Structure formats: structure tokens, C-alpha cells
């Protein structure tokens, strides 16, 4: 599935920094930018799976990632909405009805 310009910009510019700082084992993009029908206010939905999130509260992971990668609002990408899991959390949630199932079915794994 081809990525739109916003998703491709994330892969080209943000993913290298994400890999360096968080050592993810998986990164998924999903949502309207990947499905080909973003609107003016669409954010970029990202799932990041990393051991680096172990022992950290769920919401704190997202806040830290957004702050450290300067993603609160990017002039090109816009708003990035990351969901951050440890590998074990991701494995457990894959079999439940949740956003992970949609991301796995319709999204794109970029790492």
C-alpha cells in the first residue's frame, strides 16, 4: 500500500530518530493517511512497540515520545498520535477487538 506524502515524511524524517531513541521492534502507521482519505484535520496514527516503554505509565510513554521527537505539531506532518506498547502488551492486545487489529489489518508496518 503506497503511503501518502505525510506518512512518507514520517518514515523518511522521524522514523530514524525514533529508532535511535526508542529501539522499537515494530512501528505501524494506520488511519486515514495510510488508507488514502485524510481530511484537513487528520492526524497520523502510529503504533510503536518497544522494550524502552517497560515500567512507564501508558500515558507517560506517549507524552515522552511526542516531546522527545518534537512531534506535538510538525509543520509538514501535522499532529502525530502515537500509541506506545511493550512487546508483551502488543502481543496480548493483538487478539482483542481494538485499534491494534485495525492497524494490523489495514495499516502498514514500517519497521
Automatic annotation (TrEMBL):
One GO molecular function term of this record is:
nucleotidyltransferase activity
Q: Which residues form the Polymerase nucleotidyl transferase domain?
A: 12-93
Q: CDD domains under this entry?
A: NT_KNTase_like
Pfam assignment, any one: NTP_transf_2
What PANTHER family has UniProt attached to this entry? NUCLEOTIDYLTRANSFERASE, POLYMERASE BETA NUCLEOTIDYLTRANSFERASE DOMAIN-CONTAINING PROTEIN
Query: What is this protein's record name?
Result: Polymerase nucleotidyl transferase domain-containing protein
Amino acid at each position: 500500500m503506497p503511503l501518502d506524502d505525510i506518512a512518507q515524511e514520517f518514515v523518511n524524517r522521524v522514523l530514524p530518530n525514533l529508532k535511535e531513541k526508542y529501539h522499537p521492534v515494530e512501528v505501524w502507521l494506520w488511519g486515514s493517511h495510510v488508507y488514502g482519505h485524510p481530511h484537513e484535520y487528520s492526524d497520523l496514527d502510529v503504533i510503536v512497540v518497544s522494550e524502552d516503554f517497560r515500567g512507564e505509565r501508558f500515558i507517560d510513554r506517549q507524552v515522552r515520545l511526542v516531546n522527545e521527537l518534537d512531534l506535538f505539531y510538525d509543520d509538514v506532518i501535522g499532529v502525530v498520535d502515537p500509541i506506545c506498547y511493550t512487546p508483551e502488551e502488543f502481543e496480548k492486545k493483538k487478539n482483542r477487538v481494538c485499534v491494534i487489529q485495525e492497524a494490523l489489518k489495514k495499516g502498514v508496518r514500517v519497521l
